[in-house]
Specification:
Distance between the termini of chain A: 25 Å
Order of helices and strands of chain B: EEEHEEHEHHHEHEHEEHEEEHEH
Largest interface: A-B, 24 and 25 residues
Number of helices of chain A: 8
CATH class of the largest domain in chain B: Alpha Beta
Order of helices and strands of chain A: HHHHHHHH
CATH architecture of the largest domain in chain B: 3-Layer(aba) Sandwich
Structural class of chain A: mainly alpha
Number of domains of chain A: 1
Radius of gyration of chain A: 19 Å
Helix content of chain A: over 70%
Strand content of chain A: under 5%
Number of helices of chain B: 10
Strand order of the largest sheet of chain B: 6-7-8-3-9-10
Distance between the termini of chain B: 42 Å
Oligomer: heterodimer
Chain lengths: 211, 311
């Protein structure tokens, strides 16, 4: 497990997408927030309006959480797509187990996604001058990241083609929003995805070796 | 504990309507180098994957280290080093990092990891590549990296699918030396290759497969015996034409302006008469020697015979 995580981190750093995954959502939030501040200063209105700032803050939190979900899932897909969807996975499978490879991929995706989420939420707080950390949003955002990572791993165990992520995104984006809004059906769907997709991905990885 | 590292018995594998392996049976004794020969699509890779526990059979049994490949996959995987025919390397890692990660995956402890990496680098003569990113490796270097990875946990059995592919002549010599060294250390090697001359040089045993069926399994000498190879005799002249011996029932296999090759058994007396006969016709004989057929020729003959038998 440790070795697989080391492999993923080194690969993520060397291919320069781990930085994008971790800092991308925060940069997005920061850019929007700073843009709003500059616009308010130039136009001379709205900036002092507490209601608008609060609305902006919650919008930035929503966007930050959603982009962290995409970053976590996408980052995992980027790092492991060749390893999982290629016959070369046989070398990894012989040295480890398919379930361990999938678990390592999930830990990598979730860890990078959660760090991205924390940074995005902190940035949202900073640009809206709010010291309160949105804990419920953070917790449900973490859950959405875990679900998205499971979906991304299942996708990359099917094919390394980035196009395979499109249906996952189509499902994951509204699902993530619903999870973050704490909708019970979405939470149940997320839990089902979490329990079903990783074993399927493990099975597909084992099958890939035989191809 | 048997003396056989691999025992395949009646393996059957189908891919849809295509039968890839049918009733494949053979044994690979411990501490030997066994070559696996067959044309493309004969079932070599399928068999190697079954042995490596990566593919399940539809019928038959395969035991590796006396363990069933279906039931004891994890135990077997820990003890084999597999080099697939096609593999990709993570181009952003250095070879040393890559091997260290695999050593870790195989459970080699922190203290021993650097040593194991160093041994694998030495054995595969890849020390010079150790700290280079793997993006700039040639095909032959990639093969050697794959081999280093297969050796990193000091496996008891090496299963190599076309390991000589892409190796230059010098690297092939080194590769053969490496396999001999591994055999001396008690390791078992089972490898497929199309370079039959190399196999002939290093293998103790051969398994020959044709269209999913094993047509021979045994030592190299046994393969030659089974093929009942008649000796070829080559006569070369300096002046004049080399001609057929008059009173012998032999077949001309090949001929040129000043040489001729015959197939058939000849006693020393018959050979003497043949030389005298050619000399009496005004030619100067400078060579009369037996030509040992190559494994390639024997293999081609085996395949042809099987095809004749099967219509």
């Amino acid at each position: 497990m440790k070795a697989l995580l080391r492999y993923a981190i080194v690969k993520g750093i060397r291919e320069k997408h781990l930085i994008a995954v971790v800092f991308g959502p925060a940069i997005l939030i920061g850019t929007v927030g700073i843009g709003f501040i500059v616009r308010s200063l130039v136009t001379g209105h709205a900036f002092g309006d507490t209601t608008i700032v609060e609305k902006l803050g919650s919008a930035l939190i929503e966007v930050g959480a959603l982009s962290a979900v995409i970053a976590g899932g996408g980052g995992t897909f980027r790092v492991f797509r060749k390893e999982l969807a290629d016959r070369s996975v046989a070398s990894l499978v012989l040295a480890s187990r398919p379930s361990m490879i999938v678990l390592a991929a999930m830990i990598y995706g979730v860890a990078s996604g959660v760090i991205a989420l924390v940074l995005a939420l902190l940035t949202a707080g900073a640009v809206t001058f709010s010291s309160a950390f949105p804990l419920p949003m953070f917790l449900y955002g973490c859950f959405a990241i875990i679900v998205a990572t499971a979906a991304a791993i299942a996708a990359c165990s099917i094919s390394p083609d980035p196009a395979v992520l499109v249906p996952s995104l189509i499902i994951m984006l509204p699902l993530s929003v619903s999870i973050e809004m704490q909708k019970m059906p979405a939470l149940i769907a997320g839990a089902v995805i979490l329990f079903v997709l990783p074993p399927i991905a493990s099975f597909l990885v084992e099958r890939r070796c035989a191809a | 504990m048997t003396d056989q590292t691999i025992v395949a018995d009646g393996l059957l594998k189908r891919y849809g309507d295509v039968t890839a392996l049918r009733d494949v049976s053979f044994e690979v004794p411990r501490g030997t180098i066994t070559g696996f020969i067959g044309r493309n699509g004969a079932g070599k890779t399928t068999t190697l994957k079954i042995i490596s526990t990566l593919l399940k059979t539809d019928d038959g049994t395969c035991r590796v280290f006396d363990l069933d490949v279906r039931e004891k996959r994890l135990e077997i995987r820990r003890r084999i080093g597999f080099l697939p025919d096609v593999f990709e390397l993570p181009v952003v890692l250095t070879l040393r990092e890559y091997l260290s990660i695999f050593a870790d995956l195989y459970g080699v402890g922190n203290g021993e990891r650097a040593k194991r990496v160093s041994i694998a680098l030495q054995l595969t003569r890849t020390e010079a590549l150790a700290d280079r990113k793997m993006s700039a490796l040639s095909r032959g270097e990639q093969q050697r990296v794959g081999l280093a990875r297969a050796l990193i946990h000091s496996p008891d059995l090496l299963v190599l699918d076309e390991p000589a592919a892409g190796l230059d002549p010098h690297a092939r010599v080194e590769f053969k030396e490496l396999l001999r060294l591994l055999r001396e250390r008690g390791k078992t090697v089972f490898l497929s290759s199309h370079v039959l001359a190399d196999l002939e040089e290093i293998c103790d045993r051969l398994v020959v497969i044709r269209r999913g069926s094993v047509i021979f399994s045994g030592d190299v000498a046994g393969f030659r015996t089974q093929m009942r190879s008649a000796t070829r005799w080559r006569m070369v002249t300096i002046e004049g034409q080399a001609t057929l011996p008059g009173n012998m029932r032999t077949d001309v296999v090949a001929s040129g302006p000043n040489w001729i090759e015959l197939e058939g058994e000849m006693t020393p007396l018959e050979r003497g008469r043949w030389v005298s006969e050619v000399v009496s016709r005004g030619a100067s004989v400078c060579e009369l020697s037996p030509q040992r057929s190559t494994l390639e020729q024997e293999f081609a003959k085996a395949i042809e015979e099987e095809e004749d038998l099967n219509g």
